[in-house]
Amino acid sequence: MLCLMRIFQRSKSTHRAFLSSVASKSSSEIERITRIINDHPFPDQPLHPTLLHHVPPTLLSPYFVENVLGRLFAAHSNGLKALEFFKFSLSQPHFTPSSDAFEKTLHILTRMRYFDKAWELMINTGEKHPSLLTLKSMSIMLSKIAKFQSFEDTLHAFERIESEIFVGRKFGTEEFNVLLRALCTERYMKEARAVFQKLHVRFSPNIKTMNILLLGFKECGDITAMELFYHEMVRRGFKPSTVTYNIRIDGYCKKGCFGDGLRLFEEMKRVDCVPGLETITTLIHGAGLVRNVIKAKQLFDEMPERNLKPDIGVYNALVSSLIRGRDVNSAMDLMDEMEDKQIGHDNVTYHTMFLGTMKSSGIEGVCKLYNKMIERNFVPKTRTVVMLMKFFCENRRLDLGLDLWKHLVDKGFCPHSHALEILVTGLCVRGRLQEACDCSRQILVRGRQMSDAVYRMLQRFLLQSNEMAKLEELNSLIKKLQTVLPPTRVSIDTD
After folding, report:
1. Residue 447 sits in which domain range?
2. By CB neighbour count within 10 A (0-12 exposed, 13-18 middle, 19+ buried), where does 170 fall?
3. What is the pLDDT of residue 58?
4. Is 33 within the bounds of a domain?
5. How far, CA to CA in Å, does 491 sit from each of 153, 156, 453, 480, 485?
């Protein structure tokens, strides 16, 4: 019997090792293809032949395509490249596309304001793969139009999606909720309220509808309006849900009214509305905002009693509370605990820790944490990259700024224009024009435009140094991109 158990355990261990090996190989291939796509010169050469050469049909799977597109999104890759990769996957025989891959492609296009291409993609998808059209894809389109265009454009887009894209589908409350969420996310609360009053007869609202509007008032920071609407939804006969309470608790906590948040927490228990992970996370973060670290720890420690298991969000909330309480060492210990429990670290963890370390131990502490992050091959998101780049340049550590830039590029990422602006400013001021031009060129050849501020700065310094060849090269790359990219703020002097 003992012998059989050992054989079984050995078999399980071998299987786990095999799965780990497969996952590692898949991850490596995803990173390789992402880098090839992101580094591909744009728009000088077509991407399709390159993909044919590097992506064998056996490699294509819904998982693979979704993850490459996810990496391209995180890498701020040019949207047209992502679109070409998605189209390439569709052209392969026996490949079945997924809604997730379609949504990621749509998200990349709309984030870069390629709205014509996004509409074209939605129409083609509706005709050839209608099963891929989801509420999420509708939400992506409407939310980006609400962000970059007008309220009227958003309403028109909703009508167009109903009549041209989701053909034959009867729109109901869920679709109505998507429209309201897009408006509320961009704080069009007056307009959202008007749309609700006009259309609630056609689309019968549910508790989700009311929570979306409540969330909109909360995000505007108007606690009075939030509470007035809460009482209105109760008068309309809606029973508050856990989500309703979470929104109100978060609204009070962000205004520094932690006591009111706790009051609502106690009220939840009285009305048999069970607090969940999000509730506790919100309260721990709220305790941190008023620097009540003791209460934050208490809420964290009481979680097992509530049959709740801490996730990365809860740990990040406690890390934030410790940082606000100026207890950076305990926050570092908590990071180690997260690693020991295989919870890991995400961008929120690192961003919070970097903020705390900058204030407590300056450049030395930041360097230590930065080196740990790089050793773990972690790629920070734009907000953290910009923060670090600014800190490095302000502390005259351009070597670290360039190292971070190289780390992003080596991982197949196309750093955001804000990061470029900070780094180029630091390099130009210190007379390091060649490196400033190299970084700018890396952005341009990958199909991303630089801001007008970066261009003007480079232009001024290059003219002063009589580096006309370098300026002409940049001008040529920018003009080439302007033939295919949406309108930008970059303007080039032609005389």
Report:
1. 414-495
2. exposed
3. 87
4. no
5. 27, 31, 10, 13, 13
